[in-house]
Amino acid sequence: MIYLTRHEHFNAAHKLYNPDWSDKKNEEVFGKCANSNWHGHNYELLVTIKGEVNPETGFLMDAKILSKILQDEVCEKLDHKNLNMDVDFLTGKLASTENLTVAIWDQIAPHLPMNVQLHCVKLYETPRIYVEYFG
Ligand code: NI
Question: How far apart are CA 91 and CA 85, in angstroms?
Answer without folding.
Answer: 7
